[in-house]
Structures are given as C-alpha cells and as structure tokens.
Design goal:
By secondary structure, the protein is mainly beta. The protein contains one helix and 40 strands. A hairpin with a 2-residue loop joins strand 31 and strand 32.
Length: 660
C-alpha cells in the first residue's frame, strides 16, 4: 500500500522537476549569435596544370618531319616539366627530350625508327578502306608551369614549320580538295592514351555523301596509330569533307594530301565545328590562286554570303554572289580577285557550315598551303616556330571583322624574350600585316616563337602566321591559323540553389513537384501489369425533348414503341435520336427506295417518301417491311419464334416512289 502511494507521489514530482528544468534553460540560458564572416566569391578560372599534344608524322620513315618545336609562354612561376617521347609507351620511360624552363623555345630532333607495316584491305562499312598500323608519332606531355600556354609544332626538313600538333579529342573536321588532283590522301588516327578508342569517319564529296554510309567502328589500340588510304574511296572527287568522331576514347586525327607519290605533302588544318558564322584567317599578300572549300553537313541546302576583310576594308569579292550548296556535300569555289591581297574570309550561312582555303605554295609535292575556319584568339595565341633570315621571312596577318582590336606582339627566342613587344592596332572591318624578326640581334638569325595578346576592350581577333621566301613576290612556304594557348581555364558560373523534394503516397519515394503543378501531388506511374484505368463516361448527348405528335396506340408517332404500343420507359437511356429533317416537325424520316423505313411499327401504314435522285423511276414500289410483333404480347403456343407475314398496305397508299 505504501509503495503504491509513493509511486503516485513520485511520478508527478518528476514531471514537475523536468518541466522546471526546461523552463529554466529557456528563460535564463544564453543565446549565441554567429556573426556573418566575409563572403568569399567562387573562383572564376583555374590555372592549366596538364596538357598533352601528339604529332603523327614525327618519327615515321616516309615523313619529312625532322623535329618538334615547343614553347610555353609566357614564363610563369612554379615548377613544371614537358617530356617528348615516342608513341608506344609511357612518356616518362624513354623521353627524347625534357624541358623544364617555360618562356623559351625548344627544338627536339626526332629520328625515324620504322616504316609503315603493310596490311590487307579491310572492309569497313560497305567501302573497302585500306587500314594499316603505322610506326612513328611523338607525344608531348607537360605539367605545371610548362603546361600553361603550351604550343607544339612539327618542323619539316629545311626548318620550315609544317603543321600544328593537336590535343586528343572526340570530334575533328577536315575540308579540302578531292582526289581529282591528288595522288594520295591519308587519314592518321593516333591514340596517345591508355584507353582503346573507337572512331567513326563520315565522308562527303562534291557529289554528296559517300555511297555506303560512314566508316564505322575503327578500332585504335592504346599508344598506337593507324593510317587509312582514302584516295580509292573518293575517286574523281573535287572537294571532300571528313568528320572524325569517337564513341569510345580519344584520338588525334590528321589528314595529309600529296600530289605525287614519293614526295612531301601538305597537312590539312583541323577546321572549326560547323556554325552559321565562320572566319578563315591568314590569307597572305603573295600572288597565286585562292580556292575556297565549303562543307555543308545535314540535309538542308546552304545559302552563303562571303565577305573579304582586307587592308582596305570589307567587301564581297567577285564571284561570291549566289552561292548555294546542297546539304550533305562539299564544294570548291575559286576566288581569283583576291590574289595578292592579305585578307580574312568571313562566311555567313543560314545553316551550319565549315570551310578551308588553299593557296599556291608549299613544299614540293604539296597541292598548296591551307588555312581553315578558326575561333578568335582568347587570352593569347602562340606560334611555336618562326624563321627570319636565311632566305625566309615570317609575318602575321591580323584581322578584325567586328570591332577594332589592339594587340601586343612578343617574340620569344631560345634564350627567352628578346626585343621590345610591339602594340598594333587593327581597325574595325580591316586587316593588317605585321612583319616579324625585324628587331635585329642573334635571335632573328635563328628560330623564334611569337605570342599575340589581345588587349582589354578589343573585339574578336583572328590571326594567321605566314612563312614565305625572302624577296618581293616570294613563294609561300607555310601557313598556319593561330589558335588560343590558354594559361587559365574559365570556369562556369555557379549559383547557390536549393532543391526540395516532397513525399507522396508511395512510401520511401520522393518526387520534386512538376513545373506548373503548384505543389500538387504528381500522379503515380502505372505499375507493371496493372490495368489502365478507364476514362469516365462521356456526358450523354442531349435528347430531343420537343413534343411529338401523339398517335393512337401503336401509331407511327409513338417514339420507340414497345409491346402493345407502350411508350419507351423514360428512365432507360434512349439511343441518340436522328436529327429532324427540315419541315418534318420532328416526325420520322422517310426511307429511301429499297431500304427499311425508320420507326415503322406494326399496324401503321407505310409513309410516303420523296423519290431519290438515283432511285427507281416514278411509280416503282419497294417491298414493305414486315410488321413487328412483340413476343411478350403473344399467348403461349402461338408460334412466338416465327416471323409473321408482312401486312399488305392499304389501298391508295404507296410506300415509295410517290411525290411527298
């Protein structure tokens, strides 16, 4: 008894003590406020820390490439290293050349080690494309300060730059002349990574897409290179467009064209991804033919507008009007009026296009020198190898198709920067030529690099580097569109965002509210095997409630009469009534000749009907409908299942064929 009493006392006492403690903490406890600190904005850019470049022709026995030139500009603080190694292994295992000083030009000779291994033609798609593995190729891997602003070029025999070494990617475009004037056309696919790549090649010519579709499923093993001979596939074509893309892995794609076997060729620069506005920079002042090659992917035809941005202004050159190119094809356009005029070509189209241009010149065996549609220079553009003296001259063709541009040009030698940077100004809608290697000194008697930096407030800047023979009217030896060499990578803008979810009927699953649903619960998706719910029945059609002329029992005026002439029950849903014919006042429609009359009830005389247009001649009689009898009105044993004989209509009443 005492224990029960104690429990009754202690339990309320404990509750009171707990409530008091909570009240004391709430009333006398100290509140702590956290002060807002200084808000740190997110970074807008990150420095480049690693870059990989690959040169396909360096080290091949049949190639004219003798060295690889690389530079990382400008000189930045911090440690860094760039290694030049042969394709087929890890770069750090057997490097050919190692560079640790940014801001200086380095030239690494590359000796040929092997020849292309012959292989049988392999059927790719429906076209026989000769694909062979090849030995050669050089990979440049840079990190740290050597990765910022890195540029690598192939240098051919005679110290003439031949092509830019590209980074591995998944999408490449090439546009140029077809096989009509060429002896060989080769596609190089180089995989410098550790993952196997699977490449697809789509070819278009001036006759349209290549018959048989794309060359699909070209396997490129890690640290290897293959070569495809495209001349037999594009036989007698005058313009071609190649689209190389990978479904797995990354590759470096390059295209070489040769006019005769055994000689050197020309490398097509990679063109910009198709767009409605493209610019081709770097047309030099040397005389010679200018030929434009345009590719139109897709099925829609392109209507082109061509503008030449020259030193005297922008204008459409002769022969550039009414340019229409069918979709899915490539075309060649000759521009003789631009011979000897430094310029850039600006193309505008109603559908995405890409293009390249060929000029007279190049090494022996090359069809010419090429420039391609390029993006404007962002942050800075670097040219790795230039020559001045010894019978060669280098120059820059700068173009501003939009707003005016101010740029700073800096020359970099083997020992570092040399000479004073020069600032040039390009007027809006104009081009200008800047001569290189005019400062004197020992740097200009050897190779050097060039860095072009657009200044703040400038419009889009397009540039091309030209190497020509010395003297007036010298032959163009090399042409290269200048690309951006970034030291920092811009980051996309990121904002704080709150994403909320709301649970609904099914346990353990949440769904965000659908836009425009105002927070309402979304409909559950149907389960597998569940029956789809039926739609609610439609609202019945409005009945005709107009009064109808009432006839005697069983008369024709009784709507839907049943047994013994009883009217149809009102509670039962009647069928949708037929529309009343004008002038009938709701009475039943007459029947056409040879058809059953509507609402004809047993014992009612047949109605007169109007003669049909294509019916029998006047006076013809149609067979009357048998009288209807309700089984429920017949006595048992009276033959309820038999059809009664038809009644003869009264005299003087015709069923059909009489005028109403």
């Amino acid at each position: 008894m005492n224990s029960v009493t104690a429990k009754r006392i202690l339990v309320p006492l404990a509750v009171v003590v707990v409530l008091g403690a909570v009240y004391a903490l709430a009333a006398f406890g100290r509140t702590t406020s956290v002060g807002a600190g200084k808000q740190v904005p997110p970074p807008r850019a990150a420095p480049v820390t690693s870059v990989m470049r690959a040169c396909p022709s360096a080290g091949m026995a049949s190639s004219t490439t003798a060295a690889v030139a690389l530079v990382a500009a400008p000189a930045t603080a911090g440690q860094g290293q760039a290694e030049v190694s042969r394709l087929g292994g890890i770069a750090s295992t057997h490097p050919l050349h190692t560079v640790t000083s940014p801001g200086r030009l380095s030239v690494a000779p590359v000796r040929a080690v092997g020849a292309t291994r012959p292989a049988a033609s392999a059927a790719s798609g429906s076209q026989p494309v000769k694909t062979v593995p090849a030995q050669g190729g050089v990979v440049v891997q840079a990190g740290g300060s050597m990765a910022r602003g890195l540029e690598v070029e192939q240098v051919a025999t005679g110290n003439i730059p031949s092509a830019r070494c590209e980074s591995p990617g998944t999408d490449f475009w090439f546009v140029g002349p077809g096989q009509h004037s060429l002896a060989a056309m080769q596609l190089f696919l180089l995989n410098p990574g550790n993952q196997a790549a699977d490449a697809n090649v789509v070819i278009s010519t001036d006759a349209g897409p290549l018959q048989g579709g794309a060359d699909m499923g070209i396997a490129v093993a890690p640290h290897s290179m293959i070569v495809q001979s495209l001349a037999p596939v594009v036989h007698q074509s005058r313009a071609i467009a190649l689209h190389v893309r990978t479904s797995v892995g990354q590759v470096v794609a390059a295209v070489e064209e040769t006019t005769h076997a055994g000689g050197g060729g020309a490398w097509l620069p990679a063109a910009q991804t198709p767009a409605t506005h493209v610019v081709l920079p770097g047309l030099p002042a040397a005389t010679g033919t200018r030929q434009l090659f345009v590719a139109v992917p897709g099925t829609q035809d392109a209507h082109l507008k061509l503008i030449a941005v020259t030193t005297k202004g922008s204008y459409p050159p002769a022969g550039s009007t009414g340019l229409d190119i069918p979709g899915g094809s490539a075309a060649a356009i000759v521009l003789p009026s631009l011979s000897g005029i430094p310029a850039a070509l600006k193309l505008t189209s109603d559908v995405p296009i890409t293009a390249s241009a060929m000029l007279s010149g190049g090494a022996q065996g090359a069809p010419g020198v090429f420039t391609a549609a390029s993006l404007p220079v962002e942050e800075q553009g670097v040219v790795a190898f230039d020559r001045a003296g010894s019978g060669l001259a280098s120059q820059l063709v700068l173009s501003a198709p939009g707003r005016a541009v101010m740029a700073r040009i800096t020359e970099i030698g083997i020992t570092g920067s040399a000479g004073t940077p020069q600032v040039v100004q390009v007027r809006a809608g104009h081009s200008m030529v800047a001569q290189l290697g005019k400062g004197g000194g020992t740097i200009h008697k050897s190779a050097f690099s060039v860095m072009i930096t657009p200044l703040a407030g400038s419009g889009p800047l397009y540039a091309g580097r030209v190497v020509t023979s010395s003297g007036t009217g010298g032959r163009v030896q090399s042409l290269l569109p200048v690309s951006s060499s970034l030291t920092i990578v811009p980051l996309p803008k990121v904002q704080n965002a709150v994403i909320t979810t709301r649970p609904y009927a099914r346990a353990g699953r949440t769904v965000s509210p659908r836009p425009g649903s105002r927070g309402r619960r979304p409909r559950d998706p149907p389960r597998a095997g569940a029956r789809t719910p039926r739609r609610p029945p439609r609202r019945p059609a409005r009945q005709d409630h107009r009064r109808r002329r009432r006839a005697p029992s069983g008369g024709a005026g009784t709507p839907r009469s049943g047994a013994a002439g009883r009217p149809h029950p009102r509670w039962r849903r009647a069928r949708r009534p037929r529309r009343a014919r004008p002038g009938t006042r709701g009475r039943a429609w007459p029947a056409a000749p040879g058809r059953r009359p509507h609402r004809l009830v047993a014992g009612s005389p047949p109605r007169r009907t109007r003669p049909a247009r294509d019916g029998p001649p006047s006076g013809a009689q149609a067979a009357p409908r048998p009288a209807r009898r309700d089984r429920r009105s017949l006595p048992p044993g009276s033959g309820a299942g038999e059809r009664p004989a038809a009644q003869e209509p009264p005299a003087g009443h015709g069923h059909a064929g009489h005028a109403a």
